[in-house]
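Late entry, evening session. Most of the bench is empty. Finally got around to the prediction I had been postponing all week. Sequence below, unchanged from the version circulated by S.P.
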Amino acid sequence: MINNISKEDAMAILKEDAGKIKNLVNKQRDTLCLLSCPAFEEVVDTQLFGFSREVNFVVRCALIEEKAGKKLIEDLESDLNGHFHAEF
C-alpha cells in the first residue's frame, strides 16, 4: 500500500482511469449496442459520475487543484461527447 502519494502520481492515476473509461466506452460502442441505446447511455453516465467522485476525493486530499480536477472531468466529457457526435 502506498503511504505517500505525490501530486504527479495522483494526476497520473486519474489520467490512467480516464483512459480506461474511454476504452470501455469505445469497446461497448463497437460491440454491444448503438449510441442511442439507453444501456450505453447509463454506462457512460455511471462512469462519468464515478470518475467525478474519484477526482473530488483527490482534490479534497489536496493532491491536485480543483481547477485541474474540473479540467480532467471536462476533458473526459468532451472526449465521450465526441463519440456521440462522430456517430450521428
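Two things to note before I forget:
The two ends are 45 Å apart (CA to CA).
The CA atoms of residues 1 and 88 lie 45 Å apart.
Will write this up properly tomorrow.
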